[in-house]
Amino acid sequence: MPKPVTILTGFLGAGKTTFLNAVLAHQSDRKFAIIENEFGQENIDNELITRSDGDLIEMNNGCLCCTLNDNLYEILTELHKRRDSFGELIIETTGIADPAGVALPFLADASVGRAFELKRVICLVDAQLLEDQLRDTAEAIKQISFSDVIIINKTDGVAPDYLPKLKTILEGINPFALILIGSQGQYPIAEAFATERTRVPEPMQATAEHRHHHHAHGDIVSLSFRFSEAFDLDLFSNRLTAFLVFQAVGVYRMKGILSVAGKSQKIVVQSVGRNLSIEGGPHWAEGEERVSRIVFIGKKLKAPGYEKMLQQCLSAPAKV
């Protein structure tokens, strides 16, 4: 069985390492391998470290830790050799990293996928700085748009009635993500780690009156499309791959759950940089309406062109 992987992201100062230390303390019965993209002043608690073995640090709770300085593939190969010593892998990215680059090997490399399975991307955001970062930093937008779970952190620094506004902003940008509220010592760890990438949010499961929905926050646009018609997966793959390679200027993220002709599974599609990832998700439940949901997140996106492209990927009705 492949080892489950969680990528932990968030802009500079969002509180990723504090959250990670809380995870290690909360999940004391689970053994983790941890890859840190950087060691800052607030790294993994020094008290946890017992000995170093080359590039790997063994901690007194049985976890392994290392720093990602060079090739992620080399680290994964080494961890695979030690797979019996841990149950899960957590990768903490730098504060300015695009998590898509870290996720790419798990989604695009079959050999990596046999050993490790990306389960979720968790993003921490600073409640006090979120709106400024959305306005000023593309990196923060990419981190939010690529995530499956978003934890609004440092909530003690803002008024309680400001939090619903932040949640609405985040839901508008990334409607696939689960939005949670947390603060130091009160993180929703169990709920965050129970969420997986193939999740379909409840509001998106209902039949929609309109084919597409447009949400904007400044220049950031989230386009949500809903189709009751089944998709032709080959057409979708070819058109979206070409689009991502040649035309996706300003697109930070694409994610969708597709109903595909002839398949009983939900098909999970997403952009990883300029690459397209396609994989099987859970099966459609008996009696569940098979409605596809696709979201594009980016800068100054216009709905008509995207809708036309998607319509061209629909499966042709069977001839009688």
Summarize the structure in words.
This protein is α/β, with parallel strands linked by helices. The chain folds into 2 domains: 192 residues, P-loop containing nucleotide triphosphate hydrolases (Rossmann fold), CATH 3.40.50; 110 residues, CobW-like, C-terminal domain (Hypothetical Protein Yjia, Chain: A,domain 2, 2-Layer Sandwich), CATH 3.30.1220. The chain has 10 helices and 15 strands. The strands form 2 sheets. The protein has a 9-stranded mixed beta sheet with strand order 3-4-5-2-6-1-7-8-9, sandwiched between helices. It has a 6-stranded antiparallel beta sheet with strand order 10-11-15-12-13-14. It is globular, with a radius of gyration of 20 Å.
